[in-house]
Amino acid sequence: QKEVEQNSGPLSVPEGAIASLNCTYSDRGSQSFFWYRQYSGKSPELIMSIYSNGDKEDGRFTAQLNKASQYVSLLIRDSQPSDSATYLCAVNVVGRDDKIIFGKGTRLHILP
Amino acid sequence: ETGVTQSPTHLIKTRGQQVTLRCSSQSGHNTVSWYQQALGQGPQFIFQYYREEENGRGNFPPRFSGLQFPNYSSELNVNALELDDSALYLCASSWTDTQETQYFGPGTRLLVL
Question: Is B36 exposed, middle or buried (0-12, 13-18, 19+ CB in 10 A)?
């Protein structure tokens, strides 16, 4: 069964610390992986995409993918209060009707 | 701002009515996907349109239907509204049918009474 799982949180992290967000997925055919940030009342905004095993860094954000363990994570370094939001993990399975599956999201709260 | 626009921003309907939501894709994008996001949940894929043809559908009943026009704008139609249809409806556009780097519009919040 296709599924993307995330801890709903809230995850509370002190300002300046590293926030670690995790996501597991069930479909081994998954090929593309995305992290979106969604502020309350707003639409999702793409932060990172990752397609191959390993780490991908973009500024304060690092996405990590382990296809063998069916696990993808997002690290946020030097967390800022403006990082407080819901983070959605999304997985794209090419060739299936469910083109992209989102997790329920993890609420992140950065403590000033 | 992503360049994807949606209208209306908010809408109140009663059970049994029909609703049409609209989306204008970002310039140069030929693919539009529609999502339903209930409160506290992640977006759920409804369907995708690529070059005016439906190109994939999620687990939604036939009363959810759509169109894509030659300028790649799109409509989502929902017939026989039910209370559970109350949600944020999001459209996202991209330039291929693989949903790489899709950009979301601001959404339409629908309330069904």
Answer: buried
Q: From CA A99, how far away is CA A32, in angstroms rounded? A: 11
B36 touches chain A (CB under 8 A): no
Strand B10-13 relative to strand B108-112, pairing = parallel
Contact A39, A89 (CB under 8 A): no
Nearest to A102 by CA among B29, B41, B105: B41
Q: Is A46 on the interface with B (CB under 8 A)?
A: yes
pLDDT digits (tens, 9 = 90+) for A51-70: 999 999 999 999 999 999 99
pLDDT digits 0-9 by tens, B40-97: 899 999 999 988 999 889 899 999 999 999 999 999 999 999 999 999 999 999 887 5
Q: List C-alpha distances in Å: B106 to A60, B75, B99.
A: 25, 15, 18
Residue A86 has pLDDT above 70, yes or no: yes
Looking at beta carbons, which residues of chain B come within 8 Å of A9? Answer: none
Residue to test with chain B: of A2, A21, A27, A99, most B Cβ within 10 A: A99
pLDDT at position B15: 98
